[in-house]
Structures are given as structure tokens and as C-alpha cells.
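FW: tagging you since you asked about this chain on Friday. Here's the raw sequence from the shared folder, copied in full. Didn't touch anything.
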Amino acid sequence: MDVSVEQETEVPQTKIKFDRTALARYGMSVGDLAEAIDIAFNGEIASQIREGQNNFNLVVRFDKNNRGNIENTKCPF
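HL: got it, structure written out here
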């Protein structure tokens, strides 16, 4: 039997601290902002475009430059 260890690569993470008081001023919850951040970076289907027999998803998300690196992101949150 041959045993080997698979080397794991670290996944970069960013920790976000939510200012609950500021969120409350805008009528938002932590969940609302977390969902907005998720959509901004991962995208969400907002609609479908029909062109003849073809359907295309319309996805809302940050552009490539902003979703690739949170330090370069110009967003209001």
C-alpha cells in the first residue's frame, strides 16, 4: 500500500465586520448586506433575454476588475 498526503492550497479569505448601527440607519440587516456582497462577487440571474429560439441569462455582478480583488473594489459597502 502506498500512502501519500495531498497538499492543500490555501484559499484567500476576507473578513468583513458589519456595522449594525449604520446598517439600521439604511434599513438593512446583516443578511441583506451579506446577500448584496455575494451577488456582487458571484452574480445572480436577474432576467432572461430571448432572441429567436435562444434564451440567455442576464447576470448582475461586478465587472471583472472589481470582483477579482476586494481591495480594488469601488463599492459603497
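FW: The longest strand covers residues 44-51.
HL: agreed, and Residues 39 and 60 are 7 Å apart (CA to CA).
FW: great, closing this out.
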